[in-house]
Amino acid sequence: MQYSISCDFWNNLLVKPAVEGTLNVLRAAKDCGVKRVVLTSSSSAIAPNPHWPVDAVLTEESWADADTFKKHDVCHYY
């Protein structure tokens, strides 16, 4: 037996809050004069990276270090 959940269910549960939250962040950033926002799929995409100083500002160049994840067998990151 297969079960089906309507697309509206997933849109209301996941997509709509994600879009609204992202728009809220972008509007707030604009209101505060932020010049650039980097949107990633997850905070895991940009941190931790042992090659970056602790006080570094994270940018589009701040990608997580896949070799570190592999070394520590964190397989869901790569």
Keywords:
78 residues; mainly alpha; NAD(P)_dehydrat-like; Anthocyanidin reductase; NAD(P)-bd_dom_sf; oxidoreductase; 3Beta_OHSteriod_DH/Estase
Outline the structure in words.
The chain is mainly alpha-helical. It folds into two domains: 1-35; 38-78, no CATH class. It contains two helices and no strands. The protein has helices at 7-31, 66-71.
Please write out the topology.
Blueprint lengths: L6 H25 L34 H6 L7
N-to-C CA distance: 34 Å
Task: Please provide the count of β strands.
Answer: 0
Helix percentage = 25-40%
Mean pLDDT: 78
User: N-to-C SSE series?
Assistant: HH
Main β-sheet: number of strands, strand sense, barrel status?
A: none
Q: Low-confidence runs (pLDDT<50, min 5 residues)? A: none
Number of helices: 2
Radius of gyration: 17 Å
Question: Structural class, please?
Answer: mainly alpha
Indicate how many domains the architecture comprises: 2
Summarize the structure.
The protein folds into two domains: 1-35; 38-78, no CATH class. Helices cover 40% and strands 0% of the residues. The protein has helices spanning 7-31, 66-71.
